[in-house]
């Protein structure tokens, strides 16, 4: 079979970044490999594990129906592996063709490879991918395995922030802002940004943060300021919670961050509204953030959106925004924040 014939129809991203696919004898997995020995070694170890042969060097860190994660021990440094079950079945087609859309799904392994490498290329604050394994049924992938270098000495931002003193927290916020700025300038919206998906080095207090877990990422953002507002609000809510007494302070902090990242033109009524909303509420159920950040124009009716968002039980326990004509009011305009 010619290379062209064998690869026909497979995602461009796999062909661009990897060689393959290769198979180890006796395995029903096939592997796309970055061009180095390390990737081959990682794939071989994981392949043996999947066949029940190598039980010493692979540790299962978490087993879930859809996504299990593993640590693979190796001589030159460990690896991180994530197994992705392609369910429902239409995601197998998404993975096969490497397309991300509502029909074929967003969060399959081919998309995750594509997004992870796009983030890393454009910001240098993502992470590399060494290989992608696929188990085929009738020519279509039903499970995929993504392997990356193990981030030795890195922990997630939530843990780092909890453990940090005042000075350490300031440094983490500063570095988080730098990451959000890099994503703003690269026109990327993570869409699953949270404490567990931002990584911090414990060995180098100046090392830039890295974003991981890029399956749902949108890499063709047309509204970077909107994307930034959503990410700032979500991350400050993750880090500080949504304690009522702090909301005014958080909003001021969020607006200052928005202004520094997105500039004067990226600081407007729509971004203020999204900052106020995302600091308080989980938006993903009531609003397509993907559609918003890829829209040609943005038109947001804050009070109407808040009403929709508060209809969800999880959101109703937070004090509502005080609107001063369709614009979230500043702290000093809000009597409710005085505690009475
Ligand atoms: N390369 C890596 N090296 C070391 N640890 C990692 C690496 N990548 C991820 N992790 C750790 O594993 C956790 C899970 O990874 P990831 O977020 O990619 O998987 P997930 O299945 O989408 O998880 P979740 O559903 O919990 O978000 C991360 O929160 C992080 O702590
Ligand atoms: Mg994660």
For the structure shown, list the relevant keywords.
alpha+beta, binds magnesium ion, about 350 residues, seven-stranded antiparallel beta sheet, three-stranded antiparallel beta sheet, Transferase(Phosphotransferase), domain 1, disordered N terminus, Phosphorylase Kinase, domain 1, binds adenosine-5'-triphosphate
Compact summary:
The protein is of the alpha+beta class and 340 residues long.
Kindly describe this structure.
- The chain has 340 residues and is an alpha+beta fold.
- It has two domains: 3-149, Phosphorylase Kinase, domain 1 (2-Layer Sandwich); 154-331, Transferase(Phosphotransferase) domain 1 (Transferase(Phosphotransferase), domain 1), CATH 1.10.510.10.
- It is built from twelve helices and twelve strands.
- The strands form three sheets. Strands 1-2-6-7-5-4-3 form a seven-stranded antiparallel beta sheet, sandwiched between helices.
- Helix 7 (166-186) packs antiparallel against helix 8, helix 8 (224-240) runs parallel beside helix 10 and helix 9 (247-262) crosses helix 10 (269-280).
- The longest helix is centred in the middle third of the chain and has 21 residues, at 166-186.
- It is globular.
- The structure holds adenosine-5'-triphosphate and magnesium ion.
- Adenosine-5'-triphosphate binds at residues 67, 69, 80, 82, 127, 148, 150-151, 156, 196-197, 212-213.
């Amino acid at each position: 079979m010619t290379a062209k014939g064998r690869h026909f129809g497979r995602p461009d991203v796999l062909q661009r970044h990897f060689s393959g696919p290769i198979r180890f004898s006796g395995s029903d997995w096939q592997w796309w490999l970055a061009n180095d020995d390390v990737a081959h070694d990682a794939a071989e170890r994981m392949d043996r594990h999947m066949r029940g042969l190598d039980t010493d060097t692979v540790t299962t860190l978490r087993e879930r129906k859809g996504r299990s994660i593993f640590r693979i021990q190796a001589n030159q440094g460990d690896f991180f592996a994530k197994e992705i079950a392609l369910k429902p079945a239409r995601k197998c087609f998404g993975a096969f063709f490497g397309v991300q859309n509502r029909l074929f799904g967003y969060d399959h392994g081919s998309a995750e490879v594509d997004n992870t490498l796009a983030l890393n290329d454009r910001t240098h604050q993502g992470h590399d991918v060494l290989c992608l394994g696929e188990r085929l049924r009738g020519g279509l992938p039903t499970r995929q395995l993504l392997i990356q270098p193990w981030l030795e000495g890195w922990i997630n931002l939530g843990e780092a922030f909890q453990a940090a003193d005042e000075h350490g927290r300031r440094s983490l916020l500063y570095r988080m802002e730098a990451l959000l700025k890099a994503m703003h300038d690269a026109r990327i919206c993570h869409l699953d940004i949270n404490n567990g998906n931002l990584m911090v080095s414990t060995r180098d207090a100046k090392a830039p943060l890295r974003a991981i877990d890029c399956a749902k990422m949108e890499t063709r953002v047309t509204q970077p300021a909107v994307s930034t507002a959503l990410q700032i609000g979500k991350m400050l809510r993750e880090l500080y919670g949504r304690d009522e007494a702090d909301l005014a302070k958080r909003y001021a902090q969020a607006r200052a961050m928005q202004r520094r990242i997105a500039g004067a033109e990226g600081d407007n009524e729509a971004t203020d509204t999204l900052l106020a909303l995302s600091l308080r509420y989980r938006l993903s159920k009531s609003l397509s953030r993907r559609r918003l950040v890829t829209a040609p124009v943005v038109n947001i009716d804050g009070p109407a959106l808040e009403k929709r968002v508060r209809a969800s039980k999880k959101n109703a326990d937070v004090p509502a925004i005080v609107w001063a004509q369709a614009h979230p009011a500043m702290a000093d305009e809000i009597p409710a924040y005085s505690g009475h």
